[in-house]
Write a structure and sequence with these properties.
With about 80 residues, the chain is α+β, with helices and mostly antiparallel strands. The protein has helices spanning about 10-20, 25-45, 70-75; strands at about 50-55, 60-65. Helix 1 (about 10-20) runs antiparallel to helix 2. The longest helix has 19 residues, at about 25-45.
C-alpha cells in the first residue's frame, strides 16, 4: 500500500482542533467525519473513469462513471 502525505491547510487546521484538549465529543466526531471526507477526495482523485450508459426517466444517456475496482462487483449486476 502506498503512503500518501497530505499537507492541505484544511486538514492541518482540523487536526489542530481535533488534538485540542478542550474539543468536545460532538465536535471531535464532526471533525473526524470532515477529515475522512477530505481524505476520500484525495484517495480517489486519480480514479479511472469509463463511459457507460444509464437510463434517466426512460431516456438513455452516455456518462462517465468511476471504473469498477473489484471484479466481484461486475459479477453482481
Amino acid at each position: 500500500m502506498n503512503e500518501i502525505v497530505l499537507n492541505h491547510p484544511l486538514i492541518t487546521h482540523k487536526l489542530g482542533i481535533l488534538r485540542d484538549i478542550h474539543t468536545g465529543t460532538k465536535e471531535f466526531r464532526e471533525l473526524i467525519t470532515e477529515i475522512s471526507t477530505l481524505l476520500c477526495y484525495e484517495a480517489t482523485k486519480d480514479a479511472k473513469l469509463e463511459k457507460t450508459i444509464i437510463e434517466i426517466h426512460k431516456v438513455q444517456r452516455r456518462i462517465y462513471a468511476r471504473k469498477r475496482i473489484f471484479s466481484e462487483q461486475k459479477d453482481r449486476r
